[in-house]
Amino acid sequence: MKWTTHQAMALMTSFAAGFPIVGMAAAWFGSVVPDMLDQRAARRAFFRQKKFNQVHRRSSHWFGWWLALWAWSLTGQLGPLPDAAVGGFGFGALTHVLLDMCTTHGVPLLPFAKKRFSLKLCSTGSLGEYALLVMSVLVFWIMEKPELLRFSVPLY
Ligand SMILES: [Zn+2]
């Protein structure tokens, strides 16, 4: 998925889940970190794109790291502010992995597995991705403002 989709989804879901502003900002940042890690891994290679294709959506896109980070923040060991930041970060990265799971390219179900799992709902940058984004924004909007669904047409 495109970074815009990842960031929008992370912001909407963290807001809907009641994250504090620090957690929402961390989720926004965390939502692109799995791809940033892959870009960083490929940065020094001579054939950068080839290396990127080799490392992309491997261990950085395994849900377990990010779920563990989020779960760690829920233990409350770090204190309120770091918990919000670490939790938001883990949550944001987890939304990234779940969204990439919807694309045809998929994500690994085991940390170092080459085989990827995909729900095959859309491909990155396709009309399907944007349709998914628009539908999610509508669902989020209706959840936040349920009065929009009430019609005020007088019956008399
Ligand atoms: Zn990704």
Order of helices and strands: HHHHHHEEH
Shape: globular
Give the averaged pLDDT, no decimals: 93
- Proportion of beta-strand residues: under 5%
Q: How would a textbook summarize the main sheet?
A: 2 strands, antiparallel
Give the neighbour order of strands across the main sheet.
Answer: 1-2
- Strand segment count: 2
Number of domains: 1
| Euclidean distance between termini CA atoms | 49 Å
Helix count, per DSSP? Answer: 7
Helical content class: 55-70%
Uncertain ranges? none
Return Rg in Å.
Answer: 18 Å
List the bound ligands.
zinc ion
Structural class: mainly alpha
Layout: helices, strands, pairs:
Blueprint: H1 3-16, H2 21-30, H3 33-42, H4 48-55, H5 63-74, H6 80-102, E1 107-108, E2 116-117, H7 127-144
Antiparallel strand pairs: 1-2
The structure holds zinc ion.
What does this structure look like?
The model has no long low-confidence stretch (mean pLDDT 93). This protein has seven helices and two strands. Helix content is 61%, strand content 3%. Strand 1 and strand 2 form a beta hairpin. It starts with a helix and ends in a 12-residue tail after the last helix. The radius of gyration is 18 Å and the shape is globular. The chain has 156 residues and is mostly helical. The protein has helices at residues 3-16, 21-30, 33-42, 48-55, 63-74, 80-102, 127-144; strands spanning 107-108, 116-117. It has a two-stranded antiparallel sheet with strand order 1-2. It has one domain.
